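Dear colleague,

Thank you for sharing your sequence with our group. We've completed the structure prediction you requested, and as agreed, I am returning the results in plain text so they can be pasted directly into your records. Please verify that the sequence below matches your submission; if there's any discrepancy, let me know and we will rerun it promptly.
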Amino acid sequence: MDTRVVSIGSQDFENLITHNDFYIDKTHFIKEWWESRDSVTLITRPRRFGKTLLMSMVEKFFSLAYKEQSSLFEGLRIFEDDNYRKLQGTYPVIFLSFASVKETNFEDFYEKIQNLLSELFRKHKYLLNSEKLGEEEKELFTSFLTRKARKADITESLRTISDYLYRFHGKKPIILLDEYDTPMQEAYLSGYWEEMTVFIRGLFNSAFKTNPYLERALLTGITRVSKESIFSDLNNLVVVTATTKKYEDSFGFTEQEVFHALDNRGLGDQKEAVKQWYDGFTFGSLRDVYNPWSIINFLDQKEIRLYWANTSSNGLVSRLLQSADNDVKENMESLLHGRSITTTLDEQIVFNQLGKKKGAVWSLMLASGYLKTESADLTDGIYTLSLTNREVLYMLRGTIMDWFQESDHYNRFLKALLSGDTEAMNGYLNRVLVQIMSNFDGGAHPSSAEPERFYHGLVLGLIAELGKKYYIRSNRESGFGRYDVMMEPMSAEDTAFILEFKVWNPGREKTLEESADAGLKQIREKQYEQELLDRGFHPEKIRSYAFAFEGKKVLIKEG
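Please find the predicted structure tokens below.
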């Protein structure tokens, strides 16, 4: 039985290893990357996929500062090769992260960069004692420490410290830049994209293109930002995206790794559920990659839940979906119904064309991990895509209302539901349907099951936030049938709810009201409340709603 502590959110390799916390060995990446001999490598992976931890691992492996701590790698795959035992701790390393650069204007962005560079130069403050630096160079070094460096010097900062490290150690440094694209997303959302890219382009060109003191560089991020935006004429850049075979098993967990961890913790009987919820990511030719953030949380909590939903903002995806045309929103409906879509896209993100370029939202959702490739013709840029897994499906259902409605109205709907105000519920949901159904054709075929699934997902998205106070179950057996949704309160003093959805069928009912009545009748006859009664709920603490839908209209009745 594996008794190692599962450390949630730990991104420091040294801390994990020294505390003997749960860790899946990814050190083989070091050998694969080093033997590629690529000068500058950019790897894109979704959020919470181990990018920062891997960069921390690379830093600790190569950095001269860790030469005496080779024990960190004892027993790991990289030390199976004696050549890499000798390589460990032999290079100066520059490690910089843009993960916290999320400012809403250029002035604050520039100040944040100054602060990060000040911390970077302070880490190598021993260079000030070097006789190999002249007085003017030491003054320049001090200007970075005191945040008084000129803008032109800041643009050259990574090249400057590379020069100083090379002269002091006699070896060219390795540059590691984590979450390189975070400032770009924030700049695009906040309206200072042009100013930011002019600055970043200068910084990156001096660091990665014209830097004679650079050994190698490794960058990570979520998106592949276009070369024209920030990597102008950088011919030595190797880009690794979700469809690239390089390093395909270095981020995320493989099925073998996950199943081994489940078996070692006595959770082997959960393999199928874990696969349905957290598998589905595809990198290169590797089809079964699991979300590491969700797996680590599951190993800790031992409960199938949404773990990935609240780990970062979806602001950019939300903006693109809100402003998208009907084709995009119809494709989004297909995805939410579990179908795949075929579209033309470019994995390269051109931020200042995001709102104009066809397929841009799918490029962003693929890079973010919301979509996976069923197949891809990279020559023509034609991709067949589907939602990655069940966790992503429920996450998107849970946030879809944020794309179409302001939060104050949304909160009023929840209050109306909990208080039994069906008039307010009807008013709210009818207004929302008018907006959404102008783009989503949920009622084209009322005799099929698909429209009901769409409305079902819509309401699940509405009530998702109540998951903090309610156990929300969907399509479960109770009594003599399957209810659509049951909300069981975590507090026995609160009211429980049963929700039934009906799509009006003119062959069965004359009016929408008859459809709602049929829903209430089904709740009673199928005794859906039996599960709650068995749990000790008083009948007066159980409230039933029937939702009857017809295209852009809904009628909600309480029974």
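Summary note from our side: The chain has a mean pLDDT of 87.

Kind regards,
the structure core
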